[in-house]
Structures are given as C-alpha cells and as structure tokens.
Design a protein that fits this description.
- Strands 3-2-1-4-5-7-6 form a 7-stranded mixed β-sheet, sandwiched between helices.
- The protein is globular.
- The protein has helices spanning about 5-10, 25-35, 55-60, 70-80, 115-130, 150-160, and strands at about 40-45, 60-70, 85-90, 100-110, 130-140, 170-175, 175-184.
- It is an alpha/beta fold.
Length: about 180
C-alpha cells in the first residue's frame, strides 16, 4: 500500500483503527509485551508505530527505541506524549530502512500491507539490522482484508525469509490474530 494511503487515513481520523480505545488493541498489546523474553532491550525498532500507543508501552522495556512510520501525521501525534527514550523517523519501506543494530524488532499489523516482493525486502533489512542475539516479534490480524496479503500469508512469508538468520519460530497465538516470536 502506498504511503499516501496511510497519510490520508490519519488526516481523516487520527486514530482510524481505534488504537487508543479498542479492547482488542489493548489485549493485543498486553500479549505482545508478554511475548518478549527479556525485561530490558538496549535498542528496539518498532516498524509501523502509527500514533505511538504500543510505542509508549515498548519504551518501558528499552534503553532506546526507534519508532518508524510512513505517515508524517501519525508520527506528529506519536511524538506528543512520547517518553524521552523514543526517537521517531519517517520511513517509507521497503526503499527506506534505518541503520543500526537492534536487539528487538517489532512488526505489529504492518506486513500485510506489502506486496510479497516488498515484504521480502523488509525481511532482508530486518536481518541486516538485527543484533546477533536479537529477536523479532510479529503480530497480525487473521481476518479478511483488502490488503495485498492476508495475515497468515504475510507472517509465513516473513518467517520463511528470515529463517536462516532467526530459525526459532514460536507461534504464541493463532486465533483472531497471530502473535509470534522469531529468534536465533
């Protein structure tokens, strides 16, 4: 999906998917945080941070958190109440991707927006910036969408693309949404 799709959604409604108010989102964020194996990560990358609801919660588990999104409007909203250990960057994936070494990469509800080829490029970049003992957490809704990929397709394609770098795959939930952790 083009970056303009997200920018338009956020300009029409700053919380178009109900991240701040939805019981589904709150429960999903709780489970995402419980999927993390460490109490603290030195460097976290959150891909597709939106308006920063999960970002604020992830920041409590990290020394530094880089939150990226393609929507400038969403990033402006996310910055308003962000903890001091969070930096934001406008990135349009897969052509732009941050550098660094991250011991945790979180991709929540983003992979199905990519074509299969673009998803593979994102996976390649995640492998490039993942610290040697790092982990990746994925979470995707499993219902029908009009996006390029369904949740299971996106999740499986990503896991297959990174299997040499992070071969351990643990699916923690596979009902309504899929939550999984990938590690070395």
């Amino acid at each position: 999906m083009p970056a303009s799709y997200f920018e338009e959604r956020y300009r029409q409604d700053i919380d178009p998917w109900g991240f701040r108010t939805s019981a589904y989102e709150r429960e999903k964020y709780d489970r995402t945080l419980s999927a993390l194996t460490r109490a603290h990560y030195d460097r976290i990358l959150e891909v597709g941070c939106s308006i920063g609801v999960l970002t604020a919660r992830l920041a409590q588990r990290g020394g530094q958190l880089l939150a990226i999104d393609a929507s400038r409007t969403a990033l402006e909203a996310a910055r308003k109440d962000a903890p001091p250990n969070v930096a934001f960057e406008e990135c349009v994936l897969p052509t732009e991707f941050p550098d660094g070494a991250f011991d945790l990469i979180v991709l929540s509800e983003v992979l199905y927006y990519f074509s299969r080829a673009d998803l593979l490029s994102v996976a390649e970049n995640c492998c490039r910036v993942l610290a040697p003992d790092g982990e990746i957490v994925l979470c995707h809704w499993l219902g029908a969408t009009d996006y390029p990929l369904r949740g299971t397709e996106a999740s499986d394609a990503f896991a297959y693309a990174v299997v040499k770098r992070v071969p351990a795959r643990r699916i923690l939930r596979d009902e309504v949404y899929r939550l999984e952790r990938l590690s070395a």
